Amino acid sequence: MKRAASINRISDRINIGLTGLATVLIFAILVVILGTLVAGGHKVITWEFLTQPPREGMTKGGIFPAIFGMVFSVMIMLIAVLPVGVSAAIYLHEYAKPGHWLTKLVRGAVNNLAGVPSIVFGLFGLGFFINFLGRGLDASLGKETLFGQPCILWAALTLALLNLPMIIVATEEALRAVPQTERAGALALGATKWQTIWHVVLPQALPGILTGTVLVISRGAGEVAPIMFTGAAYFLPTLPKVPTDQFMTLGYHIFVMSTQSPDIEATVPIAMGATLVLLSLTIALNMVAVVIRTRTRKALRRGR
Amino acid sequence: MPDQITERIAMAGFNLYYHATKALEDISLSIPERQVTAIIGPSGCGKSTLLRSINRMNDLIDGVRVDGQLLLDGEDIYDRGIDVVELRRKVGMVFQRPNPFPKSIYENVAFGVRMGGNQGLTSKLDEVVERSLKEAAIWDEIKDRLSRSAMELSGGQQQRVCIARALAVEPEVILMDEPASALDPLATAKIEELIFRLKEKYTIVIVTHNMQQAARVSDQTAFLMLGKLIEYDKTSKMFTSPSNKLTEEYITGRFG
Amino acid sequence: MSLKAGPFKYVGEELIANAIRLAALVAIAGIVLIFLFVLKEAMPVLFDKAVQQEATVAGYFRGLDWQPVSDLPRYSFWPIILGTLKVTLIALLFAVPVAVGAALYSAEFAPVWLKEAIKPMVEILAGIPSVVLGFFALIFMATFLQKLFGWHIRLNAVNAGLALGVTVIPPIYSLCEDAISSVPQSFREAALGLGATPWQTAINVVLPAALPGVSAAILLGMGRAIGETMVVLMAAGNAPQFTFDLLQSTRTMTATIAAELGEVVFGSAHYHTLFFLGLLLFAVTFVINLVSWSLFDRLMAKLYGAKK
What we know:
Number of strands of chain B: 10
Helix content of chain A: over 70%
Largest interface: A-C, 85 and 88 residues
CATH class of the largest domain in chain A: Mainly Alpha
Structural class of chain B: alpha/beta
Distance between the termini of chain B: 30 Å
Largest sheet of chain B: 6 strands, mixed
Number of helices of chain B: 10
CATH topology of chain B: Rossmann fold
Distance between the termini of chain A: 55 Å
CATH architecture of chain B: 3-Layer(aba) Sandwich
Radius of gyration of chain A: 24 Å
Order of helices and strands of chain A: HHEEHHHHHHHH
CATH superfamily of chain B: P-loop containing nucleotide triphosphate hydrolases
Oligomer: heterotrimer
Strand order of the largest sheet of chain A: 1-2
Low-confidence stretches of chain B: none
CATH class of chain B: Alpha Beta
Strand content of chain A: under 5%
């Protein structure tokens, strides 16, 4: 016996409404989180806050060293991850034999690494970069303790490894979007393989690579677990000058100020301010990535 | 063939294997200079494979092996030590679907020249671009929008830009893989007209599934089936009184 | 003119190709190294007698006490495994219906303008660093929920689980939305043409057709929840006690590493135990990935026919 059409329509409406509610819920979550943080933190953001170091045991002053350290570490991370990641993707897509077992293994390894918990990277950074590589370097250079300790270099390299899969995947996706017939056309004109890649393929892949880079910057700025034991410090009297210095960084600052503070009343507002600064940065970066992606998709549909 | 016609490309006992399958079997033919040679045959007979062997584009496919001889001006192009990049400069190719780069028309045509490093002065490059676009019979249509993207052009125009692009590197042989099959009849006619003029200067080898086109455009025709060369003769003879029964059946449309 | 190549003509080309191969090798080496090294530092638990005085693999699964820093160190994984499970379960119970529901709405029912608005919204949520979510959960959410529900203990598994759920909503949403949108339009047309309502079509035809992608998304979300560190470190209370009570303070495997790695003595049994824990996490993520892929393949084959 068929259900009356009107009942169907009502139950339809209810069900669809429920899923719509789920969407509204996500929106509400976002508004509540952002709203709370903005409301609590916007008063703290002043020019001094952004440009001054902390004072009086972190209960007063600003967060400039944390901003500086974050920028410094992300820059070193990019120097490490971009050339290696993009080249690895170019190798996988343009040079490697497609069905070869090694190619498949590498792709599998990259996919797996993408899911590894960030704290495991921290473990690796401590155990390998600091305790193994760092100490080894010190021993061979005859230094007491230069490399064998937490510092911005090892933290940045740990972040680079964390973000390597994302760069490789983003670049490969971008390379795949370039039609094979364009490569054939270039080669048929007497261009070499690298000329084809450099002059025809990469220019078209650039937006995709850029998207990946922007997302990786966002992640590199916000991740705490990989750098907790590999170089981030709670308080440093001076700014880091060389890669073997330790550094302060926003994410770690927020963590320590909210969980290990002797005077929680005073440090929470500062943590709020730091949170707002970090949030603004990561959200802005994510939005930039979305914009690049949308514009690339539109351009593709237009027939470039 | 009469003595004064030079042989440009010669194939002798040429085989091509794709993994274990033989895609081309015992091909022997001679392509004369400054004429149009057509390759026809049913789908999957190996015509494109044969064409792409001449500029070694098959090298790009994994698992391809060849033996036998393929001589260009007396030199076996599959010899060790052959500069494949130079070969592809000398032997140009036009593809079935127009494949201009997402760059300006100017940059498309100049591309091959730039890659070869022979660009010299910008004015020289301007000359080359103009000459090539004129040779491809499209200069007048687009001379005012050279800096616009080639992707904005119609299919037929794009194909002529691709031809200009191939001409710019001054090849001696031009390979055309069904150059008009993706185009409308008007554009096709323009391409055929172009081929007629180009053969005064270049040796042209064209693959086509359209027999009327082969009859219109070519001087000699090769008929391929299942990777084997069934018949190769002057076009006029091939289409009026073919020697091989299979050729006759194909031409009269008994199978396609 | 001969076509023979001069010996030095393409030196530059070869150099670049080799540089690229080298970079690829470095990338692969890094990936392999991380696995090998964590394994290496976990190995002493299996082979070093000195370490085994204090910690053994059997010991990890015996008893219910995690007390590495005490006169008689105990290293049972059970409390922290349970902690991970509790928090992950709550996170998924919260996130999966919300994310899948929203994805279904977005792909099937939402008007275009709304669909365009949801995407950036989810991207923003995805862009919130986990330390910020942890901070929010620690300072605001815990207090609010405690007042609302009258909790005895402020930082507990529910608090962390909900915050963790927020973390995994974006990836599950994105993958589900992709999967549902990719279902061919012909399926919907066939169902609607037979007189099914939009909802019936979505639930009985589209969602099942998208099952491979949806299940992969959920499994991926689970993997992310298990591997998340900062949120649980800040919002769960960090007491490694073995209890099924969701309103008690709890600690996960990831938080354990984060909380203790800073003070551990290099080379001690505790040190190697933490690496063993890392290895366990590595293995769990690997298994989840594997299951996710094989499930995806099997579902695809079942729904759309095996690849020829």
